[in-house]
Amino acid sequence: MAQSLMMRGLTNYITELRASKNREDEEARVDKELGNIRAKFTAARLSEYDRRKYVWKMMYTSMLGYEVDFGLSEVLNLIQFPGFKDKCVGYTAATVLMSAASDTMPAMLRAMRGDIAAADPMLQCLALTASANFGGSKIADDIGDTVRSVLFGAMVPTAVRKKAALVLLRLFRVKPSLLPVPDYTSRLIDMLELPTLGEKQAVLCLILGVLAKNGVEHFAPLLPRLITMLNAVAVDSHADPHYVYHKVACPWYRVRILRALRHFPFPTDKTVQVPLTDVLTDVLRGTPVTKSLNHNNASHAILFEAINIIIRYGTNGPASLRERAVEHLSKYVNIREPNVRYLGLEGLTRMASLPGTREQVLRQQKAILISLKERDISLRRRALDLLFATCGRDNAEEIVGELVTHLITADSAIRSEMVLKIAILAERFAPNLRWYVDVVLKLLAHAGDHVSDDIWHRAVQIVTNNPPLQRYAAVKMFQAVETSMAHETAVKVAAYILGEFGFLLQEPAAGESATGDADDATTVSGSKQFVALHQHFDRVAPESRVLLLSAYAKLQHLYEAELDHVLTPIFEAHTTVLNEELQQRAVEYLSLKAQSDDLKGRVLEAMPAFEERESVLEARLKDTSKTAKDVDEWGKEADGAAVAADSPAASAPTPGRAKRAKGGAVGPDDESSSSGNEAEPAAQEDEDILGLGGDDAGFMGGADDAFGAAAAGDSPNIVASRGVPSGSLGAVRTALFSFLDRGRTRAGLFADDTVQLGAVVEFRGALGRLRLHIVNKSDGDLRNIEIDCPGTDAVATSIVDVPDRVPAGERPALEIRFKCMRPFADLIPITVSFHSGPMSATVEHSYALRAPVFTTSFLEAVALPMDALKARWGALAGEPKAARATVPVLRDPAAVLRAIGAEVVQASPEHGALGAATFRTEATNPDGKKISVGCLFKVSPQGSETAIEVRSQHGLVTRGLVNSIKAAFAHGVGSA
Question: Residues comprising the binding site?
Answer without folding.
Answer: 8-9, 40, 49, 53-57
